[in-house]
Specification:
Oligomer: single chain
CATH class: Alpha Beta
Shape: globular
Largest sheet: 4 strands, antiparallel
Radius of gyration: 12 Å
Distance between the termini: 14 Å
């Protein structure tokens, strides 16, 4: 199956959703290249970027599941590779 390289940008505004974000990322760990998380304490949010190499369906599923969590938004940027 063909894979795509992408970055999923995640903003967590509801601290209670962090555990669910991590559970989703763990579920798709085989497609994750790397992860960077930055707690922005002054604003009370967490900023997470996830580099992935996975099928288009898996990338859409990850971003969709995360984006449906309360107080969480997710956007995806794809490479042309």
């Amino acid at each position: 199956m063909a894979t795509r390289v992408a970055v999923i940008a995640i903003i967590v505004e509801n601290e209670a959703s962090v555990e669910n974000v991590n559970a989703i990322l763990h579920e798709y760990k085989n497609g994750i290249i790397g992860r960077m998380g930055i707690p922005y304490r002054q604003k009370g949010i967490n900023i997470i970027s996830i580099a992935v190499d996975a099928s288009q369906d898996d990338i859409n599923t990850i971003a969709g599941k995360i984006g449906r969590l309360d107080g969480v938004s997710a956007k995806t940027v794809y490479s042309n590779v």
